[in-house]
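Figure 3 (text version): structure tokens given as input.
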């Protein structure tokens, strides 16, 4: 099964002249071919719908991270900040931040990347 970034959609041909297209062909194999192509398109549609649902679930978390980056940029000149941060779901602690120049963003699948504040905002 292809990953989200590998989903490709085959080109669908439009039949201008069905009579000309069917010349010398048996009906059953042509219909079977169209049914197979329709099944492939339905599978691709289902994959896109699932991908959209996963992205929609991640959107609030991404927006929250972006809001924090914007707030850090606004308070960049302050010598020291005290912030609440989430250790685990529903568990928070206070942290003293000084001279914040970078942030680490969790991408998932065991991947975390470090960005400057300005790059993280983009």
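Below: residues designed for each position.
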């Amino acid at each position: 099964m292809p990953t989200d970034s590998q989903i490709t959609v085959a080109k669908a041909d439009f039949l201008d002249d069905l009579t000309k297209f069917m010349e010398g062909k048996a009906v059953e194999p042509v219909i079977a071919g169209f049914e197979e192509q329709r099944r492939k398109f339905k599978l691709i549609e289902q994959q896109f719908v699932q991908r959209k649902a996963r992205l929609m679930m991640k959107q609030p978390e991404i927006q929250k991270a972006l809001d924090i980056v914007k707030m850090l940029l606004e308070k960049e000149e302050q010598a020291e900040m005290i912030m609440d941060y989430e250790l685990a779901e529903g568990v928070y602690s206070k942290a003293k931040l000084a001279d914040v120049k970078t942030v680490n963003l969790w991408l998932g699948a065991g991947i975390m990347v470090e960005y400057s504040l300005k790059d993280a905002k983009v």
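The chain is about 50% helix and 25% strand.
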